[in-house]
Amino acid sequence: MAAKSSKTADEPTTSSTGTKSLYEASTQFKSWNFSPEQLVIVRESLNSAAVTAIRNTFETDEPGSSAHVSFLNAEDEHLLVKLYITKIPQLCGHFRFPEEVEATAITYLKRFYLRNTVMDWHPKNVMLTALFLATKTTNNPISLDSYTSNIPRTSPSDVLDLEFLVAQSLGFEFAVWHAHRALWGLWLDLQYLPEITEDLRPRDVYEMALKHVRNSRFTDVELIYTPSQISLAALSLASPLLAQKWVDSKSSGATDSASETLESIIGTVKYFITQAGQPPDVEAVREVDRRLKLCKNPDKVVGSKAYLARKVEEERKAEAKRNKKVEDARRAIEDDDPFGSALNEAERAQRIRELDEDDD
Amino acid sequence: MDAVEQANAERQKRWVKDQKVGEGTYAVVYRGREASTGRKVAVKKIKVGQFKDGLDMSAIREVKYLRELHHQNVIELLDVFSSKTNLNLVLEFLDSDLEIIIKDRSLVFLPADIKSWMAMTFRGLEFCHRNFILHRDLKPNNLLIASNGQLKLADFGLARDFADPGYKMTCQVITRWYRPPELLFGCRYYSTAVDIWSVGCIFAELMLRTPYLPGETDMDQLKTIFRALGTPTEEDWPGHTKLPDYVPVGQFPRTPLRDLFTAASGDTLNLLSKTLTYEPRKRISAKEALHHPYFTSLPYPTHPSKLPKPLSSHSSRPLEEVDGNVDLAPHGAPAKAAPPNKLKRKLSSPIDDLRPLARRLDFGQMLGDGGSNDVC
């Protein structure tokens, strides 16, 4: 026994996560890592489920009314989200938020729309909420009042009403690993390489690589590749030579097939960044947004018939619950035993749960 | 109902709240269980509605870090769900904490027991630091103890990540008695060394059975530290007089740790002094500490299941071998209400039969290095 327990002190690196890298143990790797095909499937199934649900709502409201509605498809939705991604750097510049806030908010916005559709939740307020949440999760909080008072036509409730929904959609997984941090690591590594003299690594190379990392945020690469892969691709776009030197310094003894795999990954990321790493065409987005006005989910539009019907139903359920509680209390009083009968475990738990839910 | 709301509702149904066990300013803690398995859990319900800035920072910190950290010596966050305007954190249920154990005068600690708690604390902390997370509130009552004896770091409400040196952070962290001198001097650039100082204070407290450096005010805290460890010189800690809130608080001589910790072994005092080194950059790291000879020399650390613990967890003893969190027996009295019982360790540890003498008489032998027989 003694020998076994001494082992606990001997092997600090052995943990419940085994030999996995830190990154592989992160929620980013576990929950938010997709293949390009998976991304398409996720977005299309969200989109078609939403279209079906909204079509039903329209039909219930007024039969035949959905026939001429041009619903958004998954690509339309993606385009609209992309436009709002480009608004985040503008706002962050205005508030002088650190880069970490900007990158985190963009990640949150992308992740939100892998669980929701723009026809339910318009990206404008979701974007504002994601950004506000990012200031807090990255430890750069500002007060909600000073946040919203600096954004035109925005009230605190626009942000607050959605905060829970956004946090839930993110699965409360707030930690994000960023490519710009990985790039800084690469840059520090390069300074350790004896053959890379100072004149071989001018600061503009870093600045240019950072620009490519920033452009990568307009694309899906962070949902497919790791921060280190993205940063290496960005460095390679800025200086293929330095990127190669870094790879050489790290991969002595790597097999040919590993090198080929890396090369092909970096090639793909570079392609993504150069092809999709810019803001979308505003005219095309405006067209999508115009159509969205006609096909958004009436359940979420305050004042619509569907919205009112949903509220009535919610109220009816709450009323039923209250009545049941009153009834339970009455029964307990009328019980023959003045101390009440012993509740079985399940009943007791059920009651406590109901009380808890009501004591907000 | 949205897919997201639906998922939340399903999560909520997985957990049953049984009984309120504590209430703080911003949270209520319930004892509960997993509906399908009966596994005991703690549900921390954070009232969010009352904050005008939405989700509050300490809840966000706790969720953010515990979502990422999965380690035997860090409390496990099992689930998160919302109910109306509340945020609910479902945490593994832990019976006791190190403060309760230290204060329970009926329990006697062997050097091997202290070594075991220290090993588990350093393992949990090393894992946090490896993940670039500072805990910033280590103290005995944030080191929780599972029914199988495993120690777990808890309460990440003040935690934060660190990456670049030179990133300004607040010095208003860590409970005073466990706060390192650099924070008391207003240092805004600090590192993992702040947590190590706290662990050093806890290490000393385990031996003394009373807080080692109990300052009454922030100013008195510095004086208390210097009285115990001597006023640092420029050589001990270069540059400390230039820190933002530096004030001279008097000259105290350095007294050897041996004078106070009379029963401790040489290795013990060596590790203790390395955790309580003034110069933060010279203070030992969690990883180095785990490789310190203290942990590999005799006596070996006690197996967690054999560590002293308050009597109340006795009722669940037969289940210990199965899983610390499975509890099919009716709930016993809360840990704090347990009557002292000096026979506790005998009852719970069959291995005790191998140690025929009463604890206090056993010490010289256990230390094996000629340490004195005083209780450490």
Automatic annotation (TrEMBL), chain A:
Keyword annotations: Cyclin
Q: Which GO terms describe its molecular function?
A: cyclin-dependent protein serine/threonine kinase regulator activity
User: Which superkingdom is the protein from?
Assistant: Eukaryota
Spans annotated as Disordered: 318-360
**One Pfam family linked to the record:** Cyclin_N
Which CDD domains does its entry note?
CYCLIN_CCNH_rpt1, CYCLIN_CCNH_rpt2
List all Basic and acidic residues biased stretches.
Answer: 318-333, 345-354
Domain Cyclin-like: where?
86-168
The family database entries (InterPro entries) matched by this protein are listed as:
Cyclin-like_dom, Cyclin-like_sf, Cyclin/Ssn8, Cyclin_C_2, Cyclin_N
Q: Can you supply a Gene Ontology BP term from the record?
A: regulation of transcription by RNA polymerase II
Q: Family, per the entry?
A: Belongs to the cyclin family.
Q: What protein does this entry describe?
A: Cyclin-like domain-containing protein
Organism this protein belongs to: Paxillus rubicundulus Ve08.2h10
TrEMBL record, chain B:
Please provide, in alphabetical order, the Gene Ontology terms of the cellular component aspect for this entry: cytoplasm; transcription factor TFIIK complex
Q: State the family named in the UniProt similarity comment for this chain.
A: Belongs to the protein kinase superfamily. CMGC Ser/Thr protein kinase family. CDC2/CDKX subfamily.
Task: List the GO biological process terms.
Answer: positive regulation of transcription elongation by RNA polymerase II
Where ATP binds, per the record, is at 21-29, 44-45
Q: What is this protein called?
A: [RNA-polymerase]-subunit kinase
Comp. bias regions, Low complexity: 305-316, 328-341
- GO MF annotation terms: ATP binding; cyclin-dependent protein serine/threonine kinase activity; RNA polymerase II CTD heptapeptide repeat kinase activity
Q: Which residues form the active site?
A: 137
Recorded hits in CDD domains, A to Z, give: STKc_CDK7 (cd07841)
According to the lineage, what is the superkingdom? Eukaryota
Region: Disordered, residue numbers: 305-351
Q: Where is the Protein kinase domain?
A: 15-295
EC number(s) for this protein?
A: 2.7.11.23
Q: Which InterPro entries match?
A: CDK, CDK7, Kinase-like_dom_sf, Prot_kinase_dom, Protein_kinase_ATP_BS, Ser/Thr_kinase_AS
The reply on keyword Transferase is: yes
A Pfam family hit: Pkinase
Q: Which residues form a coiled coil?
A: none
**Presence of keyword Transmembrane:** no
Q: Which UniProt keywords apply?
A: ATP-binding, Kinase, Nucleotide-binding, Phosphoprotein, Serine/threonine-protein kinase, Transferase
